[in-house]
Design brief:
Number of strands: 2
Oligomer: single chain
Distance between the termini: 36 Å
Structural class: mainly alpha
Shape: globular
Radius of gyration: 17 Å
Length: about 120
């Protein structure tokens, strides 16, 4: 890849998209920013997210270093690593882009409240 006066052996955009384009990855990470940490919590409100698909996604995210799994006697919980937390700005930018460019779907009040809510969870 030669957009610059040097060659990149791996396109940074493609490498990032390989991770975040995986089904459920950004949704699960966003859930984690909002306090969810257990398997069943990630499935709440998502009937199309099967146990198998969720297991695969969580395993992939662990392999990528985005999350870590904590196991104790009775619970399994997942937590964002620093690498996972570093997606906060990207997720906020996606939210802001969507709200700003789909104004026909949201009232002005909803846009303001959604931006504030996501900003609080992702950027503060």
């Amino acid at each position: 890849m030669t957009y610059f006066d040097f060659e990149l052996t791996h396109c940074p955009v493609e490498l990032s998209l390989d991770i975040i384009n995986r089904k459920w990855v950004l949704q699960i990470i966003c859930d984690m920013f909002f306090g969810k940490s257990r398997f069943s919590e990630f499935q709440e409100g998502r009937p199309e997210l099967s146990n198998k698909a969720l297991s695969r996604s969580l395993k992939f995210m662990e392999e990528q270093g985005l999350i870590e799994k904590m196991v104790d006697d009775t619970n399994i919980e997942y937590f964002l690593t620093e690498k996972g937390k570093s997606l906060n700005k990207l997720i906020y930018d996606l939210v802001e882009y969507t709200l700003n460019n789909n104004r026909e779907l949201y009232s002005e009040e909803t846009i303001v409240k959604a931006k504030e809510g996501f900003k609080k969870q992702l950027l503060d």
